[in-house]
């Protein structure tokens, strides 16, 4: 099921049957949140993303590149498309606009005929509201599977079948997070709370709609303002590498839609019975948290690849782990805290670089002499040489525990 109305859907509406695509065909999958009628003096300041702009009078903007600037501004504001109700008379102007639309992957359309703006608003609004109601029912169904009491399994299965989903197969949960979403919202000018809320709503629709495009038969719901939970069905002979690639492509699509956005995903284990997916959900959340807090370079992290962290999540008393960390790294942590230092980070980087001094200095962007000074300080504080075999084992293990404890503190 498609999770949102797209620009391509508007081409199928009877009222807009005479609408013609001029350029930006690759952008027809953009999400439409609402129609927006613009006159001569309108402003894009109030747009939040996903608006389909109907421009009443393009003639006033035809000179001095006004339409070209408007088209570029619409694309940068993540609108769904620009529809010219009174397009320029000049064929060369149309051609230039179409070329720019193609470059921006932003739909540019023209609509002929004497159609009242109120009719356009009503026609598109009805379609959007209908889709919103269907999406709400779908969210309720997915929420019941992942978080509910499972009081009426048969009813949920019938509802899933109505939407075209098969709950009899194995499933796997994936959780994605836009980790710098607030920064992107503020840098895009969404300062007020209501503006950010509308932008979050648009982001959720884009993310869930993209999930449906990239991952076959996925069920997805938003979580908070910057996360989404995906319930992925698995075929009998499922290809794990292909599924990972689909999730990665999905995340990359979102990052391409919102310039500067950073997206991470965590994937839990496979559940043979969909009603037992809570374990997979918890694992996906843990994998995501580890990826975010350890600055993992990968976009997608699987729970099964967490190594020792999988075991540590089941440890009953985290204070015991913290005591061990303090016994090994305490002086370094105290020094870093007081002096705003990076001794623990230096040690971690050294071990991750397989005890290669030159590579460590390069990764830390410091001179080798500065690195040797740090090592001298480390030896002075803990009484051990970092490259000693026994010290390496205990210190590196302590660093891993320290990272894990920090992750637990973020949960």
From TrEMBL:
The Purine catabolism PurC-like domain covers which part of the protein? 9-127
Domain CdaR GGDEF-like: residue ranges = 153-290
Domain spans labelled PucR C-terminal helix-turn-helix: 343-399
Q: Name one Pfam family in it.
A: GGDEF_2
Which protein family is named in the record? Belongs to the CdaR family.
The protein in question is named PucR family transcriptional regulator
